[in-house]
């Protein structure tokens, strides 16, 4: 114990990680941290640059970075074991494209800052990427990958090794060339993989090029069927953005997954964000191939056709991709300026249009109210859609009277149920009522009316009318999404065997389709679907893929296990960019939703792991985080609120302190 007499000296125990040496130092409680490090370096007498080293207090899991603080002020007793260790350590990151990259990362920075530094390579919006523990070990005790597994993961090429790079805007100082961990040699195979292009000199633009999956074995190894509960368990692994990697027991050389965390990509610009667009495309591609998100068979073939097209164009443009793409980007600029990906439904134009009249829809629509014990199907009504309300009448002539059924769609959940080949165009609505949600189905008889009604429902759920400038864009997006799924075999189009073999179809669809169909059948369907996308440029195809991914009903919902007040069993809380959803854990059905726009405040009781959310005009919501640290859940809510406060035309810098205020809970 440190004596209370100021002059009393004690033996401090230090371990120098670089030298694997234990050192004893005579120190008093009044000596400051900087002085301890100075004494230690003098005693070691090793000529070396120690400037990156700092002291780590093992027992309390704390970096001692305030070098002017004394041992007494930190509350460090003489028997405390301190590590003298570098702040920058190697980490193996698995990127969204499943490739691994060795990066030197600051283990003493908060994760938010460390990830921001890494992400300077990707884009100007680092906040949407974050790190996730490798989910291989279900108990969340992180293990190093076994050698065999490690080799399998590197079948696609060596580790991506970013150089120090001359462009400070693209590269952070924390990224330095690295050496093979097994034999210490420089990672020379990079030249074999990148060719003799400048990419091998640490140019990050290799991250903008999509690499086709080389073998179905890779897919088979990574694929495992997942229930919603499995997905919720993986989401427990998100790291805390406000604490450092070291504080969260991340070890040097460990594998962490780098992923887009918040599904809110409002400022995606194909002209400047080639890397971000590609890595987003890769995250979407793997989510679909590994069935992390549900899609229909027709949608799967459309995604496969887009992948086939992207692979083909990527190989054709290969090394010169970045140089050639300028012209290509300009060509699709006009087409994509209105396609800028946004979950709020597109860019808002400056023209207000005719503000005196709000467009309306009126048509015969089949309506179905699924209730237990009734087997009655759809019933045809004359339906009018005004503002955010649908009114249903028995006939067109009765439209001036009292409606048989009326629905206010604000805050409702809207889900498509579409099958183009059987001409099924259904819209499933879950409309909030006092005790939960009312389920209503609408059936349209063709694509065009479906697109208009679907777009109107989506906007109404956010409290917007068809007068909103994003309405026509939403209609166009729905129609183009449907068009890409059309199967219209051209009689002149005969697939040659060589072409069919070249397709590598078992790498383009999720494994369950390989059990259902023969490879030849899948290839034929992919080539058929390819006709709808064959004219697209590379960047447009990637943007379309991302947009189609966003159109899937399950897109952007992050699930966590939760116990709700009054509920007896585990349920799920789904968090999206604009709402919270209480969900049935086995079916994934929404039980109730709450919009962030309606939220007054939210609080966390850290002791009992309870999150309480208060709303302007409805009862408050309370749930206990089961199995997951409620800091993770709190950070998702705060992160989406933070993103919603950012203006589209804001400069590139992020308000780090504001992010911590909204996500930390104790800052």
From TrEMBL:
Compartments reported by the entry: Cell junction; Cell projection
Keywords for the protein's UniProt record, in alphabetical order: Cell adhesion, Cell junction, Cell projection
Any GO CC annotation of this UniProt entry: cell projection
Gene3D superfamilies hit by this protein: Phosphatidylinositol 3-kinase Catalytic Subunit, Chain A, domain 1 (3.10.20.90), Pleckstrin-homology domain (PH domain)/Phosphotyrosine-binding domain (PTB) (2.30.29.30)
Location of the PH domain: 359-464
Gene Ontology process terms (BP): cell-matrix adhesion; integrin-mediated signaling pathway
Keyword Cytoplasm in annotation: no
Tree of life domain: Eukaryota
Protein family membership: Belongs to the kindlin family.
PANTHER family: FERMITIN 2-RELATED, FERMITIN FAMILY HOMOLOG 2
Protein known as: FERM domain containing kindlin 2
Species, as recorded: Oncorhynchus kisutch (Coho salmon)
Gene coding for it: FERMT2
